[in-house]
Write a structure and sequence with these properties.
Length: about 150
């Protein structure tokens, strides 16, 4: 759905760009990791991401190491996206997941349980990422507003 800023202003009396125009952060935050020793998972967690897009809404992503080595190896990974209902969506083909089926199911179960428990290590990281996203969006929106004001 496309929104015409002028129609929005007529309908609401507010400026679309000041209300909720999707300002994406200018840069990604550094990765956060959870080691298998911290989670009892068969794989390391390489990163946890939170983002909101105009098209898809809120999504979260967890990037998992795609082998069971103890050392961090961020060259081989698979990702699981999930929404606010904790529905999991692997990216790519399942053939790309190199770990065994039992290990993969352990990862899925861990994510579902962690989403339900905000005090879990992963739940805490996800809340931190959400706060970081919102702060970065706020900073980007303020910069964009300042640029638009200078042009006027």
């Amino acid at each position: 759905m496309l929104i015409d800023p002028e129609l929005y202003k007529k309908a609401t009396g507010r400026n679309f760009d000041d209300d909720f125009c999707f300002n994406y952060p200018e840069k990604d935050p550094p990765p956060v990791r959870l080691l298998k020793s911290e989670t009892a998972l068969p794989v390391n967690i390489l990163d946890v991401e939170y983002w909101v897009s105009f098209e898809l809404g809120m999504w979260q992503l967890i990037k998992f190491q795609n082998n069971t080595a103890d050392e961090i190896d961020d060259t081989v990974f698979f990702e699981l996206y999930f929404d606010e209902d904790a529905a999991l969506f692997p990216t790519g083909e399942m053939d790309d997941v190199l770990i065994g089926e039992d290990d993969f199911h352990a990862v899925q179960d861990f994510v579902k349980k962690s989403v339900a428990d905000e005090k879990s290590a992963l739940g805490v990281l996800m809340k931190e990422r959400q706060a970081q996203w919102r702060q970065a969006v706020k900073e980007t929106a303020e910069k964009n507003r300042a640029r638009r004001r200078k042009k006027c």
